[in-house]
Amino acid sequence: MTTPPSGRRDAAVLRLDRGIALLFLVPALVAYSGFVVWPTIQLVIYSGQEWNGVLPPEPAGLDNFVRLTTDTVFHRALTHNVLWMTAALVVPVGIGLLLALLVTRAPIHGRSFFRLVLFLPQVLNPVAVAILWGWMYDPASGAINRLLGSVGLGGLAHPWLGDPATTLPALFVAWSWLHYGFVMIILIAAIEGIDEQYFDMARIDGAGRVAQLRVVVLPFIRGPLGVVALITAIASFQVFDLVYLLTGGGPARSSIVLPLHMLDHAFTFRNVGYASAIAVVMTAGVLLLSVVFLRGRGPSDAR
Amino acid sequence: MGIIALAGTASGAMAQEPVQMDYWYQSSGPEGLAIHEAAARAYTDAHPGVSITVTPYSFDDLQRILPVTLDGGTGPDVASISWGAQAADLFAAAGHLVDLTDHGAVSGWLDRYPADLLAFANQALPGRIFGVPPEQATVGVYYNSAIFDDLGIEVPSTFEEFEAALATIKAAGITPIATGGGDAWPLAHVWEQLIHTNVPFEHLTALEVDMDPDARYDTPEMIEATAKLLEWFELGYFNDGMLGTSYLDANSLFITGRAAMNIGGTWAQPEFATQPEFEARFFPMPRMDADLPWHAGGKAPSDLLVVTSYAEDQEAALAFLDHMLSEENARRLWDAGKFVTYRFDDVPPATNALQADIYDAMQRTGPGYYMGVNCVEVNRGNWAALQGMIAGDTTPEETMAVTQGIYESECPKYRSEG
After folding, report:
1. For residue B93, which residues of chain A lie inside 8 Å, CB to CB?
2. How many helices (H) and strands (E) does chain A have?
3. CB contacts < 8 A (A, B)
4. CB distance A162 to A144 below 8 Å
5. Would you call B390 an interface residue with chain A, using a CB distance cutoff of 8 Å?
6. pLDDT per 10-residue tile (average), chain B, 418 residues
7. How far is B164 from chain A (nearest CA, A)?
8. Quick check: B70 and A54 CB within 8 A?
9. Pick the CATH number of A64-302 from 3.40.50.720, 1.10.3720.10, 3.40.630.30, 3.30.420.40
10. Is residue B54 part of a domain?
11. Which chain A residue has the Cα nearest residue B406?
């Protein structure tokens, strides 16, 4: 029996290690394939069928995707989601960043208390949030209209969820209230991870608070900020619960969003194939968005 | 006879072996659960060893959950579900429901339910019965009798009197009609009352049942009725912020006396009979065109009781169905203020004035539709179009043109399926 040269032995050990590693990966791969890959493949298959969810499906080729080009409700829902995402990257992200700076860098007492209070909306159930904001927006007895009346601005009282011009912004305000806490908590962790000596150096160089934000904070939190922006953008395309519970996409589809349009087709109109086509387009859009964001972060952030 | 023998065997078996059944029903409010549970309890009390889990689902939830469950070869033993092309007809055609035709004849309840109602509610396979509606519903005008008395308003018998009442109430600083336009369908119910009193019923049947390619939503009569809805809105006859008000909030406006009327369905009757401090009463919407026969939109069978093909013990499920369709249960429903389809030999006395009003309205008006139930794209598209009109986006002509467009593009597929 001859001993193999050390190079061949190393290669054999490496192959064995890889084999064992793959073996350990099998359960996860099976679960991932069963619960993610296969349903996604099924979704694509359904998108090429005409199916009411009960009787046997019939092949439809690309008809469902062609229909998307002429479906004005789909176009409206897509526009709403894009507008939502654009605003979401500014409003809850901006508010979350501002509050994170305040509770980490501002000379205030009771920081822990403020963190807890400010984070509270994030831990509330969206159904509870919908009920809460539904009361606030109620045209007859809602807190917002009452508040306006009590400060002499009763003329500004409005059916916030009943006027197509204000429905989407009103829903967005409620969603932002729910979402900014997530942004804040991630950015608090990022800001607290910055070594204090960088702030000291900036101060020695004469940097004021705004300059410290520009030269110290923003460069250091660029990575987490990018992740927060990506998650916020994805969440903007998944927004559903608040819209469903507060307006159902109305009035007159003024607050329709893609998940709701998909739901309508899947379960109300029983066009499972068409609903799947909407889901495929949504998934592709979110994937594309993720790739663009991740590439935009650059190699330094990826470390 | 064979079925009777089988049922007897099943009863015997039930006494020995525990039977657990699931009963799902479509809930329109919390008061319904007590009624359904009482019916199930009466059955289990008389059948030791049988237990029944009663589960309420909202309309939307049942629409989603039931097809998926049945498609997976499982589901409730007995269920109360919507009739029509999107629900019971579809499930019957797919083989998910038990054919009750022969069982109904043997069990004896078939003669107690009007044949025209059974036919209305079982359109998938003519001549066969897959579901029985124990109740029927109608839509009309609930009113606050105290406000009417204070303002000296008599119950309107003509459309002119009805509009005069609206003007009087408005002039008194009270909201005439509470409607949950935010949920869309309550607004559509108001519209349906108007079209059923201004458009020949044959035309509505052509649109809703036959889906006649020559029938149209944008006829002058349809537009006139739609314009009346907009006119009422512009005159301030609906609650402020109507498009931002939910169905439940609109009911609350009526119950608390902040609105004089509520145009709604009989499913709200238990709530309106008991909750307000005033006496709520009811009348059918007077006709816009008094020369037409009187029809009320939404005067139709309620949900169907069905036995699914996946009932674990089908004999037990059929026995429970028999109980639900019995005179005993019909009386229980009637006593709870419901409007049963069961033909009593002697109609029991009404439990309150509101039930008597509604029963009277049902006798005076012919059947009517929830427009678009058989072509749900029209249903939902029309809801959105009506909301758009109220929001000022479209005229009545444009609104009906939108609905007509959906009717032409989406409904043929239901027509071809028969």
Report:
1. 55
2. 15, 2
3. 104
4. no
5. yes
6. 39 63 85 88 94 90 86 91 84 92 92 86 84 94 97 97 98 97 96 97 92 95 98 97 92 96 92 90 97 93 93 94 95 89 90 92 91 91 96 96 95 70
7. 25
8. yes
9. 1.10.3720.10
10. yes
11. A71
